[in-house]
Amino acid sequence: MKKKKFVLAPDSFKESMTAKEVCEAMEEGFRRSRPNDEFIHVPMADGGEGTVQSLVDATGGTLYNVQVRGPLQQEVVGQYGLLGDGITGAIEMASASGIQLIKPSEKNPLVTSTYGTGQLIKECLDKGIKRLIIGIGGSATNDGGSGMAAALGVKFLDKNGNDLPLGGGYLNTLETIDMSNVDPRLSEIEILVASDVTNPLCGPLGASAVFGPQKGADKEMVALLDENLSHYAAVIKEQIGKDIKDVPGAGAAGGLGAGLLTFTHAKLEKGVDIVIEYTGLIDKVKKADYVITGEGGMDYQTQYGKTAFGVAKVAQEFNKPVIGIAGYVGEGIEELYSKGFTAIFGILPGAMDLDEALKMGKENVARTCDNIGRILP
Description:
Blueprint: E1 5-8, H1 19-33, E2 38-41, H2 51-59, E3 62-69, E4 75-82, E5 88-92, H3 94-97, H4 115-126, E6 131-135, H5 146-151, E7 155-157, E8 176-178, E9 190-194, H6 207-211, H7 219-239, H8 252-263, E10 266-269, H9 271-279, H10 281-286, E11 290-298, H11 307-317, E12 322-329, E13 343-346, H12 354-359, H13 361-375
Parallel strand pairs: 1-2, 1-11, 5-6, 6-9, 9-10, 11-12, 12-13
Antiparallel strand pairs: 3-4, 4-5, 7-8
Helix pairs in contact: 1-13
């Protein structure tokens, strides 16, 4: 029998396995029933949690840990990756400015800041990178990216020429943006911002109104933060000449999207599309007989920008069979069969609580792939 080629391209199974570990469990299972076939690992992500790990794993890169300021200026250990090409860096803003870094009782988007994300960008510049991928989900902030910019030399001054305190609560006092000390290396690098959020900076669908409440903002605070970002956008338009208020995606991560568009040469792109490009997934799928993807949960919402759907669309383009596996298979899964998926399997062997399911992730993935392998020609 001719040896078959499998491309294994899953997302992480959150709290259970990284995408790389899922790939390894998949191969372990398939080898039980198909020991002579070829298995190509392509750990995937969609721009959110796990993106840096996946890009580093897929390209043979290196992870670095560095001390930076967290959302409340506390010391935290942030992380960035240098991809295998030696010139591309990758950052998840959440590792420096994420909501998981503060206690629920400490949530306060008036004072939380993206300063640490700017420090991570500076670390990448110091490493000599020429291209930077930034995933901007999961923030604790609503500062329009002003903290990030401040860490890179931008000064935000009030009417008396004093530096504004960090945080979204002070942007209403912004009078002058001083770019004279901005890091000159920012003009020399390409920045790709991985985000599936299309919200504008301000208004009823903006950063403050939609995401502020989960970051600790009550109704009055949401209104104040929205007014502050609107003032911030007006000053940017007047003094820098960029109109970012209504740009789709500017509201991502509390307006970090807007800050990156303003103070760097950034482009906003779908996270999964960036990962597809940098992992070389398309070339690998072209040569595959089967494509296997998956993530912790799959349902009808998978078609709206999730990793597994991005993989399926690539495979569909080359008429390759796509099998998805998931810890949880939810409603409307049949909608995916007309959009690239050949079959979808849940991995749980029976009823079990969440903790047990997370612990048994590798075993369940391996067993499921063994069974899939036995029915494939």
